[in-house]
Design brief:
- This protein is mainly alpha-helical and 185 residues long.
- The chain has one domain (2-181).
- The protein is 86% helix and 0% strand.
- It is globular and about 70 Å long.
- The termini are far apart.
Length: 185
């Protein structure tokens, strides 16, 4: 439980930092940690609601669960980037993504594939080190763990940056779509 809480504080702080860096706004380490801690209850509620929505969609049929997971994925980011409450974050994520579902799905799939391939590369590097130094079999687990952790330490901020940029673009497209639907008579 403590690991979950600390990881979510880190998640929130990282989102806050990357969002501010994207907007060229300064922020201190104290602000980063405080935001992660301050938004923790909202984040846990959002995670619960997101999991519940995806679970219900998956129980109904696999495809609705997959679609709902794609449509609502930005809810967690909206808590930190726009200070939304959990329900508004999930519904806004749905609204931003619904007209661009295929684009969002392709980008998320590509990102997931890239992360998977990098992790497999880490496992392969661990195996190469294992064979090269003729280590004990028990060392293989630790070597692979180290390589995968190092790779994910680099990939998490990169993937969050991509998600924040995608969310920013979706918000702009949503406003443009809303403006084009207005009648100026």
């Amino acid at each position: 439980m403590i690991t979950l809480i600390l990881s979510q504080i880190f998640f929130g702080g990282l989102i806050f930092f990357l969002n501010n860096a994207n907007k060229n706004l300064p922020c201190s380490l104290k602000e980063i940690l405080f935001v992660g801690f301050e938004k923790l209850p909202g984040l846990l509620i959002t995670l619960f609601l997101y999991s519940l929505i995806v679970f219900i969609g998956t129980v109904a049929f696999v495809i609705p669960g997959l679609l709902l997971s794609i449509l609502c994925v930005f809810g967690l980011f909206l808590l930190y980037t726009d200070n939304y409450d959990p329900i508004l974050a999930l519904t806004s994520s749905f609204q931003f993504s619904k007209n661009h579902l295929l684009n969002v799905a392709v980008i998320l799939f590509t990102l997931a594939l890239f992360i998977t391939l990098c992790n497999l590369l880490g496992l392969a590097l661990g195996y190469i080190v294992f064979i090269s130094f003729a280590l004990k079999m028990s060392d293989l687990v630790y070597i692979n763990l180290i390589f995968v952790m190092l790779i994910n330490t680099l990939l998490i901020p990169i993937s969050y940056s991509i998600m924040i940029s995608l969310l920013h673009d979706l918000k702009i497209k949503h406003v443009q779509d809303s403006m084009s639907n207005l009648d100026f008579k």
